[in-house]
Amino acid sequence: PAAKRRRLRDAGVDAADAATLTQRLLADLVLAVGDSDAGAGAPAERAATLAVNNIAAGDDGEPPARVGEPGFVAGFARLVALESAGELTATQAKQVLAEMLDGGDSPEEIAAARGFEALADDALTALVDDAIAADADAWAKFCAGEDKVAGVFVGAVMKATRGQADGGAVTAQLEARRAAG
């Protein structure tokens, strides 16, 4: 366990997650992401977070047996790569992972079946425009420095996309517009 914790730390995983991964026998899964061609470029830290927060240990303290299967490991690596590349939001990645744990190996097929596609920048911009236009008072408050009001716009965009938009991308657009004046 100590050697695996060290490898995880060397890969950029924080100490608490490294300890949890080792305890839950998920360290091999996260390390396989970095070692696989499918996970090339996918950060181990993101793989660790996804595993720690979404793969529950059973009554015996171990993750589902499926987690050790080669098809699952390769699929998990691709899932982390898809999320890291911005092709899936964090919420979408969690939903895809849940289906993978229930028996699916292909995150791409699961995402396509659920209609998960990256929202094009111009489409997101149009949705943010609509949200701002729909609530000029909230926009004025946001521009005056009331950061919490951003939730009004993020919520409107999420509602319009049925949860498919990336909330972080919406917030980034709002902040950029506020900074531009």
Question: How is this structure best described in words?
Answer:
By secondary structure, the protein is an all-alpha fold. The protein has 2 domains: 112 residues, no CATH class; 60 residues, Arc Repressor Mutant, subunit A. Helix 1 packs across helix 3, helix 3 runs antiparallel to helix 4 and helix 10 crosses helix 11. The longest helix is centred in the middle third of the chain and has 15 residues. It is elongated and about 55 Å long. The model has no long low-confidence stretch (mean pLDDT 86).
Low-pLDDT stretches are none
Q: How many individual β-strands?
A: 0
Shape call: elongated
What fraction of residues sit in β-strands? under 5%
Could you give the order of the helices and strands?
Answer: HHHHHHHHHHH
> Roughly what is the average pLDDT, rounded to an integer?
86
What is the number of helices?
11
Largest sheet: none
Please state the CA-atom Rg, rounded to the nearest Å.
Answer: 19 Å
Helix content: 55-70%
Structural class: mainly alpha
| C-alpha end-to-end distance | 53 Å
| Count of discrete structural domains | 2
